[in-house]
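Recall the central idea of this unit: under ordinary conditions, the amino acid sequence of a chain determines the structure it adopts. In this exercise we apply that idea directly, starting from the sequence alone.
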Amino acid sequence: MEENTKNTGARIIKQLLAYKGISIKEVAEGLGYNSAQVLSNKLYRDTLPLNEFVRIVEFLGCEVKTISKDGKNEYIVEYKND
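Accordingly, the structure predicted from this sequence is:
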């Protein structure tokens, strides 16, 4: 896969936002970010940590799944708010 076609965390979130018709501002407000710009910058730079990615994906009504290469095992990654 070429570098510009990889599904990075930021790219997946942007696709979900477009699909669901939700703005970055709505996600930022819903998750308690100080401003939408903070989230926007992280998406632009593709610097979301895994826990933040999972939290956003869950907010958008999806889940993060890890599947073994042989397809025999699947694991759902969940956000824990400690």
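The CA atoms of residues 14 and 43 lie 8 Å apart.
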